Every structure is written in structure tokens, then in C-alpha cells.
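Q: How would the C-alpha cells look for this protein?
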Amino acid sequence: MSAFAQSLAIYTGLMALAIIVGGFLPLIRPWNRKHLPLVLSLAAGIMLGSAFTHLIPEAYEAVGKSVGIYVLAGFLFLYVIEKFITVHICETLDCEVHHLGINAFIGIAIHTLIQGIALGGGLLVPGLGPIIFLAIVAHKAPEMFSLTTVLLASGTSRRRIILLSSIILFLIPIGALLAYGVLQPDHTATIAKAVAFSAGTFIHISLSDLLPEAHRHSSSKVLSTLMLLLGVILMSVLENTH
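A: Here is the predicted structure in C-alpha cell form.
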């Protein structure tokens, strides 16, 4: 088994745990949602920190000043997807849900496939795979929690929710394998562009999806901000030990 396949198998297994915790447990017992904004703030900090302290600097080494174009492309790509094609799950924390079930699933599915592609690109760069994985998994548990909540409220059966959650999980390795098929290890510049694109998607998820909802629903703006800073600091510390 190649190093890529071995790492992907490990990360997929760990991602499954995040999906089970975030998506399956609400099927067993009701959750108290008052702490979810803090989790979202932490996830936003981790994604911002990974983008600015890991992904963008790594991509800059290979593509130079043009790195900003690819970061912007990733940001605008998700903007167009969310505003004109799907409804993002983080918009459903406190709104009507009767029309959001399938749209929420489609939004999460597209995000997950993109995250899988980002993970695949990161696994081709020594030391970058764990950073991208941490950013993704920090977002996945609260994301799946919200998805399950919306699907339950929209009348989706538990069996179907489990099926949809399983599909979400498999999109991670599918995206990674798609990236591996296109981004060969010797294509340094192409990999760097994909890493920069991924940074743009992380910035969009953090600034457009997670932080607005976290602050809007948080009972403590100070605590929410501290969780954001904690996520950023965590990724900065990882960069210094990288």
C-alpha cells in the first residue's frame, strides 16, 4: 500500500468518527445546541489558521505572487456554489427547515467533495496532509450535527439520514482520489495551485458560513471570539513545529 493510500485510509477512518459523533448521535438522544456556536468558532479559527499559516505560504513557495489569484478563485467558487446553487447547512441553525432537507445535503456533499480534493492535494505535499485533515475534521462534526438536525426536522427517516451521512463520508476519499489522479506528485506547480484554491475555500467557509452563525447565536461574544483565536493559535503552533 502506497503512503498516499495508507494516509488516506487513516484519515477517512478518523473522519468517520467525526461524522458519527456529529451526525449519528443526535439520532440516539437530543443534543443541547447552546454550545454549538463555540464549536463553530473553534472550527472557523482552525480553518483560518490553516489557510493563512500553512496552505497559502506553502503554495506561495511554488507559484509566487500569483498565489492570490488561486486563493481568490477558491473563495469565489464556493461563493457562487452557495449563493446560486445550494443552501449551506450553517444557514439552518435557527430557521425554517421544511424546504431545506435535500438542499442542505447537496450543499454539504459539494463541500465534502471539495474538502476531499483539498486533502488529496495536501497528501502530495510532505507534512501538509495532517494540517488539512485537522481543518476539515474540525468543521465536519458540527456540520454533520446541523445536517442531521435539519433532516430530522424536515421529516427524513433515520435510516435515510444514516445513508446520506455514509455518502458524505465516502465523498472524502473520492475527492482525494480524484485529486491524486490529476495532481501527480511531480507536478509541483499544479499541486501548489490546488492548495491555494483549497485555502480560498477554507477562508470562505470560515468567514461566510461559520463565524456569522457562531456570533449570531452565541450567548457570549467574548467566549466565542476566544474560541476563534484558540483555533488560529493552535494552527500557528502546529506551523512552528512543522
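The CA atoms of residues 123 and 129 lie 4 Å apart.

Confidence is low (pLDDT under 50) at residues 92-100.

Upvote if useful.
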